[in-house]
Each structure stands twice: as structure tokens, then as C-alpha cells.
Amino acid sequence: MCLPKSFWGDWMKRILHAEEDYLKLIYELTYEANEELTKPKKIAEIFNYSEQSVNEMIKKLLDKELVEFYPYKGVKLTEKGRHEAIRMIRIHRILEVFLIEKLGFEWQDVHEEVENLEHAVSEEMIERLNKYLGYPQYCPHGNPIPTASLKPVKPVQSSLNEADEGVTFKLLRVNDHKALLQYLNEQNIHLHDEFTVLSKDDLNKLIWIEGKNGEHVVSYHLADMIFGEIR
Predict the structure, then answer these.
(1) Cβ within 8 Å of residue 123, ≥6 positions away
(2) Considering only CA atoms, which of 219, 213, 222 is closest in space to residue 195?
(3) Total-model pTM
(4) Ordered alpha helix ranges (H), 102-167
(5) Is 162 helix (H, G, I), strand (E, B) or coil?
(6) How many C-beta atoms lie closer than 10 Å to residue 222's C-beta?
(7) Which residues are paired to 170 by β-bridges?
């Protein structure tokens, strides 16, 4: 059976989009997390894919010289792969700003919409959007937006879990995790809010914090996905 050219065109686009998604994730799990390598198992868990399919994609990225793979240790981006990852992350985060600030999307819902858009927009459109938005430096989740030069920028790294009792914690970044963002909405917690760490319970893995809207209880698991300035 002879398949139409449109089928092969769509199939190649899906492959390219998947490759770009892998590069973004590997960048976030290595450079932005201060880790040299990340394991295929972790990629599989986040994408909810089988390890076999992840290993197959890593092989494709290896063939294109976009990643380096070290058996039993993990994978990292090459300079070529890092450049492509930063380019896609810049597009993703500018689109997030646009959808939330101008179209009224909630921060827990915007990720899926942007995933559908980011592979289709042109570089010219992104630059025009960036100018229209006033050249934002951070996405709505507090992640830095790379400039047009595609120079990597480290996000704030200190998590709420690292804060000791009695200190002040200013919330500056959160993981783009839907359940976490919904919880923060329910608690009326926002970026740039400040909290006092009242107490930490290592046995039950809970942290009590107090801010302008009262007291909140945060699990250690969620606290590992909340980042900011500790004073």
C-alpha cells in the first residue's frame, strides 16, 4: 500500500516534536537541576513511557549528536543539543506568559496548551510576542526565559525543604506540576509571597509556614518542588 505524502510529513513532524520534548526535559533535569546526568528511568517516569521507548529515543538523539550517553550512569546534552533545548524552552516560556497574561489561562492548565503550540510557531512570531509582552524575564512559574542569544540561565535552586525553622522564605519558582499548582491555588499562595517557617516535622514529613493569608501545611514532597530565597 502506498501511503500519501501527507502521512509521512505528519509522521516526521511527530518524531521531531518528540525529540524536542526530550531535549527540553533532559536540559531541565541536568543543567537547571544542577545535575551532570539524568537517568533514562527518570525520563520514563516523567513522560510515563516505557524505558525501552526512552532508550530508543536516546539512540536517535545519539545518532544526531544531540546527547551523550554513559551506560549505567545516564545521559546529558551535547552543546548542539543544549542549544536546541534552550531554543525550545524560550519558545515554551514566552508562550506561557502570553496565554496566562493575555488570554486568561490558569497556570496549572497552560502547559498542555503550550505543548501543542510551541512546535508550530515561527521564530519571528516568538520575537514579536516577546516584544509585545515587554520582554518578560520569567515565565508564570518563575523559570527564567532565555534571551535571544540562547545563553543558559540558572533558575533559583533553594527549595522550601532546605529552609530551617524560624527563617523567612520568599517564593520565586515552582515546578510545573498540575497537582502542586492546584494546591497552591487552593491555599491562595502565589509567587513572590513571603512566609515564616514555623516548624518542621521530620517524622511525618510536614512543614508549617505562615504568610499573609495565615498558616499552611506543606508536605516535604511538595516542598521539594517549591523554590525561593531563604533569609
Answers:
(1) none
(2) 213
(3) 0.87
(4) 110-117, 123-132
(5) helix
(6) 21
(7) 194, 229
